[in-house]
Amino acid sequence: MTNSPHKERTTRRYDSQILAHATIMMVDDEPITMEMVRIYLNDFGYRNFVLVEDSATALHVLEKTNPDLLLLDLFMPQVSGFDILTTIRALPKFKHLPIIILTGSTDPGDKLQALDLGATDFLGKPVDPSELGLRIRNTLAAKAYMDRLAFYDPQTSLPNRQMFLERFDWTLQKAKRYQEQLALLNISLDNLDKVNATIGHRGADEVLNQIARRIEGVVRNSDILTLDHGNDVSEMMLFRTEGSTFSLLLDRIHDVKGAATVAERILRTVREPMQVEGSEIFLRANIGIATFPAESDDRDTLLRLASSAKDYGKNKGGDCFHFSSAAINSLYEKRRSIESRLRNALHNDEFTLCYQPQLDILTNTIKGVEVLLRWKDRDGTFVPPEEFVPVAEETGLIIPIGEWILKKAFSQLSEWHNSGSTRITMSVNLSTRQFVDYDFFTLVRDSVEHSNVDPRYLILEITETLLMADIKHTRGLLQEFKDMGIRLSVDDFGTGYSSLSYLCELPVDELKIDRSFIAGIPDNPGKCSVVSTILMLAHSLRLQTVAEGVETRKQLSFLQDNMCHMYQGYLHSKPLDGAELRALLLPEDE
C-alpha cells in the first residue's frame, strides 16, 4: 500500500527538521578549531552546537545533551578520543550515534583504529569546509532514514515502542539527576476491533491516523505545562507503542494537575465523531497515569502502574483517566464528582449569596459588603469555595455562575436601596475567565440596567495577577467600567506582582490588603511593615483601603493608627444572608 499524503509530508518534515535542527557536539582541546568549525557549519544552516574543550567531561555532556552527531578529536590530554569512542559504543543508547573523527593525525593506523572502534567517518585537519558540510549532511540524512525505519511506526508516523523505551530510559535518568517530575500516560482506544470489522482494515487505519493527529494536536497546543519558574517549559512526547495503544511522556511537569488536564483534553478530542469510509465513527479512550518520583523511580514499575490504572478505568466503564496512586486518584475522583454536581447546581437552585460587612474603621458603621458565593449541595451540606471555585474556573462553568452572581447581587443591592436602607456599596469578585470573556462588559452593563442599581455603589474586585495578564486589554476594559460609574478594587493586594507601576497606569480606586498580612499584626514586625507601607502607598495615590480578615481588637487598633479606611472580618461579623444584613441596616424594622 502506498504512503498517504500525511505520511509523505511527515517524512519530508522529519528529514528537513533533523538536518536543520540537529544538535552537533564537538569535543576538541583546541577551542579555536571548534569555533572555526562552528563558523563553517553556520554557513550550511546548522545552529545548535555543544562545544566541549575538557575531554574528561565529554561523556557527562553527551548524556545530558543527547546530540544527533559527534565531531571528535583523537589526541587530547586526560581522556583520548579513542577512549571516548570505546566508551560511547559500549552504551546501548549511543551505539548508533554518528561520530565523525576530526584529527590532525596523518597516521593510517589511527584512522583504521578509529573506524574499527566504531567511528562513522574520518576527516583530517585542517578540514575543508565544503567537504565537512557535505559529510555531515549525508551522515545526518542517513541517520534520519535509519531512524525512521527503526524507530517510527509506519502507520501513524509516530515514534514506536523501541524509541519510546529508549526515550523513557533517558528521560527518567535525567529526571533523577535534576530532581524533576515526570508523568507517563498509557492511552488505549476502545472498540477499534469493531471498527475494523465494520469498515475494514483501510478504514480502521484511517481512524487510527485521525486519532493520532488529534492527540498530537492536544500535545502541540496544550499550554498548561509551563512551569512557574524561569522560562522552562515541559516537554510532551507521543508514541504509538502497539495496536490501539499510545504512550505519552510529560517531562519536567510542575505538578500532577498538568497531567490530569492533558488527559482530560485527550479524552474530549477522542470522543468527537469522525467520518471515515462513509461511516460516522465514535471512539472512547482509557488513560492510566503513573508519576515519578511519587510512585516509583523504576521504568518497568511505572509502565506496569500506568497500564494497571488504565485497565482499572476500563473495567469501571471506560472513557476516563485514573492515576495509579490511590491518594492522587482519590483527589481527582473527588474533583470529577464536584464537576458533575456543579453542572447541575445552577439548574437546581443550589447556590446562594451571603454578604461580608465592610465597616468604616473609625465609626464602626457598615459602609459596604463583599458578595460571597455559597453552594449547598443536594444532600444539604455546604461545599467549601476552595473546593468548587477552582473546578468552576477550569471547566468554564464560572461564566454562567458569574452571570448569576452579578444579576442576583445587583438586584439585591437595588432592593436594599429602594427599601430605604443605608446606601452601602457592594463588592463583587471577578475571575480570570470572566474578565477575558468577550461578552463580559455587555453582561455587566445589562445586569446594571436590568436591576436598576446605581453603578456608583458597585465595586468590581480584580486580582493583581489578572490586572497584569494583558495590560492593554485591562486598561481599556477598566476604563469602560469607570465610564459607567463603577469603582474598581485590587483584591488580595501584596500577594501578586511586586511592580507597583500599574497602580498609576490603571484606573483603580481601592486596595484590599490580603488577610495573610493582617493575621500577623501587630506581633510580626515584618507584616506590620508591609501593611503600613501599603497604607502609606495608598494614601499617596489617594486610593481607598480595606483590610480583610480582621479578627482581633489589636489588629483593628493597628489599622486605625495607620489610617486604614475600612475593614471586614469576624471581629465584627461572619458573612450574613440578605435578611440578616438588612436587619443590621434597618434594625427598627425587626
Poorly predicted segments: 1-17, 223-233
Helical residue percent?
40-55%
Q: What is the terminal separation in angstroms?
A: 85 Å
Spatial strand arrangement across the major sheet: 13-14-16-17-18-19-20-21
Number of helices: 22
Q: What structural class should be given to the helix and strand makeup?
A: alpha/beta
Based on Cα principal axes, name the global outline: elongated
Q: Let me know the average pLDDT.
A: 86
Total beta strand runs: 21
Radius of gyration: 32 Å
What are the main properties of this structure?
5-stranded parallel beta sheet; 22 helices; 590 residues; disordered N terminus; alpha/beta
Which helices and strands occur, and which strands form pairs?
Elements: H1 5-20, E1 23-27, H2 31-42, E2 48-52, H3 58-65, E3 69-72, H4 81-89, E4 99-103, H5 108-117, E5 121-124, H6 129-151, H7 161-177, E6 181-189, H8 192-221, E7 235-242, E8 245-253, H9 256-271, E9 274-276, E10 279-281, E11 285-292, H10 299-315, E12 320-323, H11 326-345, E13 351-360, E14 366-376, E15 382-383, H12 385-395, H13 398-418, E16 425-429, H14 432-436, H15 440-451, E17 458-463, H16 464-469, H17 471-484, E18 487-493, H18 501-505, E19 510-513, H19 515-518, H20 525-540, E20 544-547, H21 553-561, E21 566-567, H22 578-585
Parallel strand pairs: 1-2, 1-3, 3-4, 4-5, 11-12, 14-16, 16-17, 17-18, 18-19, 19-20, 20-21
Antiparallel strand pairs: 6-8, 6-11, 7-8, 9-10, 13-14, 13-21, 14-15
Helix pairs in contact: 1-6, 8-9, 11-12, 13-15
